[in-house]
Amino acid sequence: MTGPVVFDAHSLPPSDNVNPYAFSVALDGQWFLQKGKMIAYYGEIDFQGVGLGRLDRLIARSFHSPLHAADWVVAEGRGKMVLADRAFDVNSYDLDDGNLTVRSGNLLAFQPSLALKQSIVPGFVTLIGTGTFVAASNGPVFFVEPPIRVDPQALVGWADCPTPCHHYDHQYLSGFLGGVRAHTGIGGASGEEHQFEFVGAGTVLLQSTEQLMAEIATGASPHQAGVPVRDR
Amino acid sequence: MAHFRLHGSKVLAVEITGDAVKAKNGSMVAYDGEMTFKKKTGGGEGLRGMVTRRLTGEQMEVMEVKGHGTCYFADRASEINLVTLHGEKLYVESSNLLCTDDALRTGTTFTGLRGASQGNGLFTTTVEGSGQAAITSDGQAVVLRVTPDYPLRVDPGAYVAHTGRLQQHFQSGVNFRSLIGEGSGEAFQIRFEGEGLVYVQPSERNTIGGEV
Questions:
Q1: A15-137 in CATH: which number?
Q2: Where, by residue number, does the polypeptide cross the bilayer (chain B) (predicted)?
Q3: Is the link from the previous residue into A14 a cis peptide, with omega within 30 of 0?
Q4: What is the ipTM, given to two decimal places?
Q5: CB A8 to CB B82 under 8 A?
Q6: For chain A, domain boundaries
Q7: Segment among A123-132, A187-196, B31-40 with least mean pLDDT
Q8: Computed over its alpha carbons, how large is the radius of gyration of chain A?
């Protein structure tokens, strides 16, 4: 019988998966990290809330989401960190002068060479620039190209394509009964009357389940004129 | 001696030839051959164990499985990790201990603040001797080696078990910002020093420390 694979400070990969659910990052400098996604580390690493005055320049350059500020920290120092998220599949993605929008709860960490911006779609954040980030999905991620309609719960994120719009099943909504059904729920629903629709060029990232991360309250959009309220 | 092997990553198959293993109560999913299942009170550690476990809150519902054949164990589809012990001691939370060879002795030990930070109480379970044991984790566990030159910090919520001669230090980085909602979320860590292996799961239990 062979024993389990044992990792130490040297054999942990510098930037790769340890197993499908854990990712190792060699840190030499700074990384943004979502709170509670670090499970273990070797070396000397400090974790600072993003409100720290000393980090002002870094935050001004790479972090543009006051709503999510309470969920993020800056990991600083030298060492190796192991990241994981509720036993979800984790993967790293490289952006080369690109942009990618991802569900805020699914983003574990990113390099400060990327800039995080809050997406106009509630609960999502957009990463812009060049660098590496680590994101989680429930089940492996698969990539599809627009035009496509996807289940809202299966959506992990999208890259390079315009922001999606809602799509409702016309048959389901048409006529008087359809109206009653849409407004009251009486008459039953298949649960698939509503999708996100993507058009244009780009890539859409889907997870192989409809189970979501628990929503984080701070991901909700502020109540202001012109800001859409999260769809119920 | 019973032979442990994994059947996939979430089912443990144990071949038993006349001897016995101790397993979490109700974790048997199938068996072939002839088996008897007997509930053991107090974690199978006699009256003293019964009292200790009651006092320390490290209660463990254990059954003794005896017979000839193959017995399959699983626990809520959690991942199973095999640990082979050659005389060293395994420290594990009782809720993560699935099955141990009958030749192994189990007991309880004081963990101090580390236990409190995990929300698991102040005590943990020890497994000692020579033989195989199976522990469960939420997602495939990562096994990390600690050497004197390379101490390891672990998030209390992700800690599952450890073996070897390790000292644990409870480390807190709480400062005034934690009190005004600017905490780092990683304010509490366990620092492992010495020589040994630490099992970490890719998922965090809810802990008091995680809120700070």
A1: 3.60.160.10
A2: none
A3: no
A4: 0.78
A5: no
A6: 15-137, 139-209
A7: A187-196
A8: 20
